[in-house]
Amino acid sequence: ARPMTLPLAAEMFAFLVAHNLGQFRDPDWKRLKDTKFIPIWTPAGKEMHAAPKDLVLYSEAVYRQYGPLLDYVPYESASSRPSAPAAGAPSAPSSTPSYPSSTHLFFQGCGIPDFPDDERIVLGLIRNYQRYFQAVELDAYRAVLVHISAVLERLSPNTRQTLKDTPCFLAVQTKQTGLAKCEACVLVDNQVYFDMFDPLACPRDNDLESLYHKLGSRFLSTLIKSMWEVVGAPRESPLSREMQGLIQERKALLIYDPDTRTKKPALKPDHDLLLKGLRVVEVEKVIKRLTYKNKTQEVVQAAGFLGDEKQTFAAHKPVIVISSARATKGAANEIDHNSLVLHGISRLLTELLFTRFKHAEATHIFFVLKNTLTALESEGYPVTAIQRAPTTPVVAPKSARADDMGG
Hints:
alpha/beta
């Protein structure tokens, strides 16, 4: 049968309300909800047929808030749409016909609401993300994603999966914003890597990052493959001996919380053994080779790890290598070589001692290593109390060491 036009559908629905609506039973209404039989108007003024489950009754208030995100039943005064709705959406031609108020009970029976619930908003984005993205400002599109982030846990499993599989999420690359699936976007947890590789990324927004992470986005730093390389033979030097002595002298300060004066909770089980076996040596140059997808960058570093990290960590014999002063000459902001080395060592110690890298821990370690003990005491740091705290040797379980070795 040929699909109905809107004027004919309006007459039929009004007739059903007047004469036959009482004959409809729950199974009938349920079957109608999923059937594309209701003629509506697209934002471009074209007629199409939609299922009740995908529709909302038109009103100026709803259209002003959601614009072309949703599909509307042109009910009552649909032709009086505002010429410039707040969402920035185009209005339908004023000559388009609409359904009379006498059809309201029919639409109500089909389950078409006056205002969209969360599920209908998300399904609207899944269907209409392209036209909505083209019609509205980025802030309006972002607001919809933030709303979805707040209600994600309340959505049906099917809707969540469909949302995850739909390229309807804001994505930034080369200073341009487009749309992509969450799993195609990275979460930027390292600005240096982001500037270096320019990946397709989630916008820097806490609400959006939480949503993207739940729907498959991964942190950029976890996707970067890194390999340390050294130029020159490892050797002891005055600076390497100074750094190793500094670490051993202040090892308690590195792992104790100055407020609680207890060991930090995120330490690796074998942190004491890792510190005990740590060596620091110097080479001509330390290079970190970074690879993301098919792009590789080489960066001269002030400090790095020597050898296979998994093996040296598992054997509790980690080796930190530091670059000679010549390798870091001309560094940004003319930071002195020793400070660059301390910055590098602080990041490496955070990676070595803690179960997960956190910038706050690296900053704390740098603070402890950079300042004299007298200066730390004068700042109120409980140096003496922490250094006198009893130490309990920690031995990593055999299973943990085997896991670290990859077997």
